[in-house]
Amino acid sequence: MDEIKDSLKHLKSIPFFCRRCGEWKWLGKGWLCEDCLRKQIVEFEKIAGSIDRAIRAATEVKPQETCVWSFDQWSDDFYETSCGKAFTLIEGTLEENDMRYCTYCGKPIETTQEDS
Ligand SMILES: [Zn+2]
Ligand SMILES: [Zn+2]
């Protein structure tokens, strides 16, 4: 627990991988780099994004290497990452939080979330 608190404390002082573009950058709000933050705002503004998103999903290249995030059932709010870290979401799912890349190792996130 203390380790997690400590790593959260350093959030603002060390760069992380942006959860959206996967680049190693200084992050702004919500694990996004400034570029992605700006892009996200633009995206939110054009609500007709569903067509956009469909095109993007169809053309997106799926990299092989992923970081597997498994939901820790025992401590119910942590994801264990395959790169050896733990991550907790304030609310919602990874999808709802637009988490695509592991903020620790930069690989695309793969979840093994089970319904219980
Ligand atoms: Zn980014
Ligand atoms: Zn990782």
Could you explain the architecture of this structure?
- With 116 residues, this protein is of the alpha+beta class.
- The protein has one domain (12-111).
- Helices cover 27% and strands 16% of the residues.
- The chain is built from three helices and six strands; from the N terminus they run αββααββββ.
- It has helices at residues 2-9, 34-45, 49-59; strands at 16-17, 24-25, 67-72, 78-81, 86-87, 109-111.
- The strands form two sheets. It has a four-stranded mixed sheet, with no helix packed on it.
- The radius of gyration is 15 Å and the shape is globular.
- Bound molecules: zinc ion (2 copies).
- One zinc ion binds at residues 18, 20-21, 23, 32-33, 35-36.
Give the biggest sheet.
4 strands, mixed
Helix content: 25-40%
Q: Order the strands across the largest sheet as they lie in space.
A: 5-4-3-6
Radius of gyration: 15 Å
Give the ligands present: zinc ion
The residue-averaged pLDDT reads: 77
Number of helical segments with 4 or more residues = 3
What are the low-pLDDT stretches, counting only 5+ consecutive residues below 50? none
